[in-house]
Amino acid sequence: MRQKTLGMLAIFLFIYGTLSVVAQTKNEKKDSPYFNLFQLPNPCAYLPAPPDTASVLFVDDFQQFIWGKSVRNTARGQQASWESLYGAKRMATVFSEAMGMTISKEETPAIYRFIKRAGETCNQATSMAKRRYMRVRPFARMNEHVSSQFDDEKDLRRNGSYPSGHTAFGWGSALAMVEVAPELQDTILRRGYEYGQSRIIVGAHWQSDVDAGRLAASAAIARMHALPEYQEDLEEAREEYRRIKGIKSKKIEVGYPKGERILDAPVDTASYRYYGDMAYYWQAKQERGTDRGKQAVADAPCEVQDFLACYTPCVDMTLSEKETPAIAALVKKTFEELCNASTQMKSTGFRTRPFARLGESSAMPELNEHYLTSSSYPSSHSILGWGIALALVEVMPNCQNALLERGYEYGHSRVILGLHFASDVQAGRLVAAYTLACLHNDAEFQKLMAKAKKEYGKIKGKATPAESVSPERQK
After folding, report:
1. First-to-last CA distance in the chain?
2. Measured between alpha carbons, how far is 430 from 436 in angstroms, rounded to an integer?
3. Active-site entry in 90, 113, 135, 166
4. Active-site residue, 199 included
5. Confidence class of residue 462 from pLDDT cuts 50, 70 and 90?
6. Per-residue pLDDT tens for 392-448?
């Protein structure tokens, strides 16, 4: 009898232990990134290499390093040091301040988990470029110490500077939280933006590392939208937020994020950063007589059908109103909304175009007169090129690298033509990313996105393209 009892107890303990391991594994998975680095867009495929210290393009990085040092002993410097703590714990505090509520693992488990998983996935999206370039960080390059309370210098020296993982976490989690609390989008996005700039102030990253980190995060967020598990976590975070805030209506009407409240002001000719813009201008001007320059001219047309043709080579199928009507409808909607966001942002000020500022002609003289009365900041072409690429990544993630590379090139074409400064283009890509985040709260956009995904899956003979990424597109 005793042996039988012991035998039953052993079986019980074995089953209990097995269930505990399964439950623990399930919980661990819930806190893990949504994708590994091989499933995410590869920044080495769509972003350029970081500026070399011997390159004229390094001037902006150096100027921003000097700026960062100049504000370390100010309140902004103290904020940067405090924000050096990486991860969900710090971003939860940042968003708590921005949203007027306490966000923590204990009090808001769904929101906290969503911030952690989205942010960690965005950080993961920088890994392949970090490993490839192993760029030396500013403090190490200048033989100084990092100026922050939470950074480990030994760890930073072993980890590549480009792109910035902290920045990717901050900007990416901000884009994700815009869908949770759209009425607070400007404040959330600004704090996510500042989190990246803080890395420059403490000497842990160059400006180009931070810029690249935001683009990697934007790409990763687009990829995450193709995953049902991400959508489930998003909805749980939304429900938790609405319950805590006492919001009963699921439909919250908000306009486009106000870029002037989110991004820094455009570079003025009296600013030290103007030298960086000029460096990129002269560097890009050399490409006008090359095949890349011809491509820049070909990228000048800017209508819906032009973008369908632009991205067709990236997806191994013909994108058109006739052959892919649902995808074309999504592109049209995205195009219209991005144009509206661009118009709103341009209305806040006027910046003279590079060719006009220098008393020269652009690479397309027939357009000179038209562009004399149109603001250079931000670049509308860059908003459209990057924004439509992000939307298409969500539809066809197996083509993500090719789409993002083309979207990035489309914006750089404007610098080659002399129609935009590099900072106009970078701002345009950020406008595109946060406008897409805002659009994901739009019912019509959601319906068009669902139809486009269904159409693409049907054409490719799959139930959904969300999980697959072809190896050749990852190269």
Report:
1. 65
2. 10
3. 166
4. yes
5. low
6. 999 999 999 999 999 999 999 999 999 999 999 999 999 999 999 999 999 999 999
pTM: 0.92
Catalytic site residue from 61, 209, 233, 299: 209
Mean pLDDT, rounded, of the chain: 92
Beta carbons of 374 and 351 less than 8 angstroms apart: no
- Residues belonging to the chain: 475
Q: Could you tell me which residues come within 8 angstroms of residue 41 by beta carbon, excluding any fewer than 6 positions away?
A: 125, 216, 219, 220, 222, 223, 393, 400, 401, 404
Out of 193, 222, 246, a domain closes at: 246
Number of domains in the chain: 2
Among 443, 424, 438, 328, CA closest to 378: 424
> CB count, 10 Å around CB of 118?
30
**Domain stop point among 182, 217, 246:** 246
Confidence of residue 6 (pLDDT cuts 50, 70, 90): very low
Residues 57-90: pLDDT tens digits?
Answer: 999 999 999 999 999 999 999 999 999 999 999 9
Residues 150 and 51 in one domain: yes
Q: What local confidence, expressed as pLDDT, does residue 271 receive? A: 94
List 117, 137, 191, 205, catalytic entry:
205
Distance CA 448, CA 136 (A): 44
Annotated catalytic, 205? yes
**Mean pLDDT along residues 318-331:** 98
CATH number reported for the structural domain that contains residue 453 in this entry: 1.20.144.10
The reply to whether 408 falls in a domain is yes
Kindly report the number of other CB atoms within 10 A of residue 203's CB atom. Answer: 25
One domain, residues 301 and 190: no
Is there a catalytic annotation at residue 145? no
